[in-house]
Amino acid sequence: MSGQVFDYVRVSTSSQNEARQVAALSDVDKIYMDKVSGKNTVTRDQLNALRAFVRVGDVVKVKAVDRLARNSLDLLQSLEEFKNKGVTVKFIDSLEFNTDAISGKLVITVLGTVAEFERESIRQHQAEGIAQARKRGVYRTSRISQDDWKVAKRDLEAGVPKSKIAQRLNISRTTLYKVLDEGLPAFD
After folding, report:
1. CDD domains, from UniProt (predicted)?
2. How many angstroms separate the CA atoms of 18 and 36, rounded?
3. Backbone angles phi and psi of 132, in degrees to 5
């Protein structure tokens, strides 16, 4: 008995368009889509829902390796988790290879490392751009008031989704996660 086929699509921000990825993936039972940074796989609601839903014999299709993970460790852990559930993962933009074979593991590790390199390059270019914008006096960081932050903390404790909290505060989810993860001063 063959299982279901699912697509996993990820774009880094809500302003990015997922149409290119969706167009490359076809004949599926359901599409799971995250609009969140590729920094890690833990904060991706739809990826986590997909992981929980898949069963033995299912297939997960992903446009490219960097859409699933942006570093080798997350990539290998995700693939191992799917494998342990009896789920096959196929990357549309890559040659087909057996991730169970040692040569397949080598290929996936190299692809994961390339994705990690790309992410670090993006971060470096972004930091350089921010530095230039600061020199020109046009860079502005996101700020929220202490009152808003108190409301946000209360909402978090009550289980309100982070995306809703960020929307209410008129900040990006990325900014909210950064404040939560790194304890950044985000107050006026």
Report:
1. HTH_Hin_like, SR_ResInv
2. 12
3. -65, -40
Is 12 annotated in the active site?
Answer: yes
42 φ/ψ angles, rounded to the nearest 5 degrees: -70, -40
Catalytic residue, chosen from 12, 94, 142, 163, is 12
Token pair listed for 29: 């039972």
Which tokens hold the place of 166?
Answer: 């960020």
The DSSP 8-state label assigned to residue 31 in this structure reads E
Contacts of 56 (CB under 8 A, 6+ apart): 3, 85, 86, 87
Alpha helices in the chain (DSSP H): 19-24, 45-53, 65-68, 72-84, 102-136, 146-157, 162-169, 173-182
Given this model, what pLDDT does residue 84 score?
93
Residue 175 has pLDDT above 50, yes or no: yes
Residues 146 and 179 sit within 8 Å (Cβ to Cβ): no
Tokens coding 84: 């342990």
